[in-house]
Structure prediction request, 269 residues.
Amino acid sequence: MSVDEVAQARRRIHQTFNNASQILRRNRRQYHEYGPPLSYWNRNKPNIVVGGIIGLCTAGFTYSWYAEQVFLRTRKHKRLDSIRNNFVCSLDNWRAGRWWTLITPSVMHFGGTHLFLNMLGLWSFSFTFVSLFGVSGLAGIWLAGGTACSAASLIWQGYLEKESKNRAGYKGHNSHLDQRPSGSVGASGSILGLSAATMCRIPSLRVSLIGLPVPLWGTNLGFAAFSVYCMVNDAFPGIGHAGHLGGMAGGIAYFYGITRPWLRRSGRI
Prediction:
């Protein structure tokens, strides 16, 4: 091999190494600029988390429907008693020391329409919830809203029970005093807690209401006013209005007490 051929071979090797170095530097720069490829969990976190909650609520509704069908066919009420004792927010359960019924009613529904409307509302806000508060934040607000909802329901049930006893001799008709409520279930309180916390985080956020853009604070304020009106005038007694108000209050309290300080420490606000 001549001297010229050796020099040419060295130049080719040197050029190859230069090209490889340029490719490595470019890839490293792109990695730092755009980050590593997102995992399946990070790409689909809102759908996975909220889908899991919906699956849990659907499972609770399915089991309650099955328990009811078993009772209708066989008159065996063991399953219904288990649901009543462990998944219904009621004064009887609270007095019996079943404290967990402050939390468990948020995953139980007795009606298909009730379940569908709650899960539709949850799914509509899924990406916003998880992107704003993260998985742990969503779980915390869910539990806070659900627990506050149950606590408010118990307070209201206790008030109605006391009023019913005081008016035992009253002959007029007032449906919310005629008998004590048997209890409450549903994810409404947790979902309204999430909605109220989102309102506190982004006051200017708008949502679609019957096709019209409405500020979220307006919908929450209107819903709260409607609940108060129904409680005062005994309208729609089958709905847990006190629990709805409690869920909203729980979400707001959790946001300002825990979520907002955490967001500030992490530099997100």
